[in-house]
Specification:
Helix content: 10-25%
Shape: flat
Strand order of the largest sheet: 4-3-5
Strand content: 15-25%
Structural class: alpha/beta
Length: about 140
């Protein structure tokens, strides 16, 4: 997909008298049929949001790749926990408490979060969120 190559997902292998046949997954119900699960009637998730009250959650998304951040988003999406990705530019603006009740930091070395990409090696918008203006010169 990164190289612009069409890569449809293989959803099932059907065995016929002539051999095996691959089937394209069109939606969640295609998978549910194969697993003999109840079919979804609409787009609503079968998993309710576990939070009892609305909480404004931000998940920090730095410019240095972080698998933990991606998996955290996956878990939140799976369990329908609403969140917003918090990027460096928003951190630099400050006043985060006006937008978030909770900020989740992924498991990452403090130095990577604080220093991030080196100034000059990348455009300014891709450098560290927590670097003070005095540190950038």
């Amino acid at each position: 997909m990164q190289m612009g190559v069409e890569a449809p997902a293989v959803t099932a292998i059907q065995r016929t008298g002539r051999g095996k046949r691959l089937t394209l997954i069109r939606n969640e119900n295609d998978v549910r049929k194969d697993l003999a699960l109840t079919l979804q009637r609409n787009e609503a998730s079968a998993i309710p949001n576990p939070l009892r009250q609305p909480i404004r959650i931000g998940i920090y998304k730095g410019w240095m790749g972080n698998m933990d951040e991606g998996w955290t988003r996956f878990v939140f999406d799976t369990f329908n926990v609403p969140y917003k990705s918090l990027v460096d530019a928003e951190v630099k603006l400050g006043s985060l408490s006006s937008s978030y009740d909770v900020i989740v930091l992924p498991s990452q070395r403090a130095k990577e979060i604080i220093e991030g990409n080196a100034p000059g090696a990348y455009p300014a918008e891709f450098t560290a969120a927590f670097r003070s203006p005095a540190q950038t010169t």
